[in-house]
Design goal:
alpha+beta; about 10% strand; elongated; about 325 residues; four-stranded antiparallel β-sheet; 6 strands; 2 domains; Bacterial polysaccharide co-polymerase-like
Length: about 325
């Protein structure tokens, strides 16, 4: 370990540190949990109601086919394809896309007058008018509706749909969930009826343009079968959604989860307190190691300085007997 910190972990030392801070940790956890619970009281209670529906996508809107045709003449293949559309392989996905579309969401908002509820901060219920000339944006209302109010969940195992509505009033949530099923069925029927009407107008126009008797018979068969398909379409009240379980007012709120938030805040504070106590022990060890390292470096520096001898001056140096004296080796005469 750096700076001489011991590799061995002394659990007793950490435990003592935690016990030393135990009262502070507990008091802080209780205080923060109380603050979180108090702040949650400022959030409005939300209640969710759920309607369970089955999707009838395997049946055609009219249920009319050439072999089931009860008139005197049977439809040909071209006539049948013109009147009755085949079921698409992704019919469920197409239906869910229409259900979650902005078009139907905005239509549902307008039919149920949800703008004052969505923008309740800008609405005066007594005067029944918008505050300070506020103009609601239907696009923003649609996004709020799709993200906060309405939820659609598909059970892959059973194929059933759960349509959820969450509002501040349990009665209102149940009413919206049940109304959603009815109004979506009407939305789909109106869309298909519009297609049938466009085809009928086309057939009427063609009937006036041609003079051939056989073509008249074929067009009349198409119009007769189309009228039957349209009658069957409006005769079925639960198409394409069949209500299995209507929504009921919730007995208990679903949001906010005040007790859960308070408990989680308390546990988080306790964990942070324990980490703080352990961090203080580690910080103390690091400080001690740094101080020991600095002391060691200072001692080594002083020892090296005292062991180095001073250099004497050249003039004070004693003559060396072994110094070379020139030609002293020559014998004197």
């Amino acid at each position: 370990m750096p700076f001489g910190v011991d590799d061995d972990v002394d659990l007793i030392e950490y435990l003592q540190a935690i016990l030393r801070y135990k009262y502070r940790i507990v008091l802080s956890a209780v205080a923060i949990a109380g603050v979180v619970f108090g702040l949650s009281l400022l959030v409005d209670n939300q209640y969710m109601s759920t309607a369970v529906v089955a999707v009838n996508i395997k049946e055609k809107a009219g249920g009319v086919s050439p072999k089931e045709y009860r008139a005197s003449d049977a439809l040909g293949l071209l006539e049948h394809d013109f009147i009755i559309e085949g079921v698409h392989s992704n019919e469920l996905d197409r239906l869910l896309a229409r259900m979650r579309s902005m078009k139907f969401s905005q239509q549902f908002i307008e039919q149920n007058k949800l703008l004052p509820y969505i923008f309740h901060n800008h609405w005066d219920p007594q005067q029944e008018a918008w505050l300070e000339g506020f103009q609601p944006d239907l696009r923003e209302a649609g996004m709020t509706f799709m993200t906060r109010l309405r939820g659609v969940e598909l059970d892959e195992a059973s194929g059933l749909l759960r349509i959820n509505f969450t509002t501040r009033d349990p009665q209102f949530s149940a009413a919206l969930a049940n109304a959603f099923v009815t109004q979506f069925n009407q939305f789909i029927r109106d869309a298909e009826a519009g297609e049938l009407e466009a085809r009928r107008d086309y057939l009427t126009k063609r009937l006036e343009e041609v003079d051939n008797i056989e073509l008249h018979k074929s067009i009349y068969r198409l119009m007769e079968t189309q009228l039957a398909a349209e009658s069957l379409l409006y005769a079925r009240s639960e198409y394409p959604l069949e209500l299995i379980q209507p929504a009921f007012p919730a007995l208990y709120k679903t949001y906010p989860l005040r007790k859960k938030w308070a408990v989680m805040a308390m546990l988080a504070t306790i964990m942070l307190g324990i980490m703080f106590a352990i961090g203080m022990v580690l910080l103390s060890k690091i400080k001690q190691a740094i101080a020991a390292y600095q002391t060691k470096q200072l001692t080594e520096l002083q020892a090296s300085t005292s062991a180095t001898p001073a250099n004497p001056a050249t003039s004070d140096r004693a003559p060396d007997d072994d110094q070379y004296n020139g030609d002293d080796w020559i014998d004197d005469d």
